[in-house]
Amino acid sequence: MALSDPIADYLTIIRNGLHAKFKYVDIPASNIKRQITRILLSQGYIKRYIVIDDDKQGIIRIWLKYDNSGKPVINTIKRVSTPGRREYVNSRNLPRVKNNLGIAIITTPNGVMTSREALRHNVGGEVLCYVW
Q: Lowest-confidence range among 1-10, 16-25, 51-60, 116-125?
């Protein structure tokens, strides 16, 4: 099965897992997905993750995070830039998500980072997704 947008599939698997109240989800691994997952962990949106080696591309197992009442910590996870319509921003026009209550994940020449980190490094790039 050919995947046209692996990052959108990654976000959809997380979104569907949260709606179904799964404890964890398994996602086919890639370097950019590992970096996005690392950011989600550092920002407190997921509990933890591991990378499982299966002699192919690997699998990322992500433990989803819920609050005390059982609601998901991630309310919305939205793809911004798609293969058919890329969204680029420079360092002066970095997005603010929900008045800085959420994060924008951006791929820059210095790697994948949040918009706040990109502002500190004074770089722009392609906006991958919004999370809040």
A: 1-10
What tokens appear for 7 in the block?
Answer: 């990052």
Check if the beta carbon of residue 28 is closer than 8 Å to that of residue 104: no
Pairing of strands 111-114, 103-108: antiparallel
DSSP string, 26-68: EEE--HHHHHHHHHHHHTTSEEEEEEE--SSS-EEEEEE-B-T
Enclosing H/E stretch for 78: strand 77-79
All domains of the chain in start order, with CATH: 6-64 (3.30.1370.30), 77-131 (3.30.1490.10)
CB 80 within 8 A of CB 129: yes
**Whole-prediction pTM:** 0.95
What does the pLDDT look like over 75-130, one tens digit per residue?
999 999 999 999 999 999 999 999 999 999 999 999 999 999 999 999 999 999 99
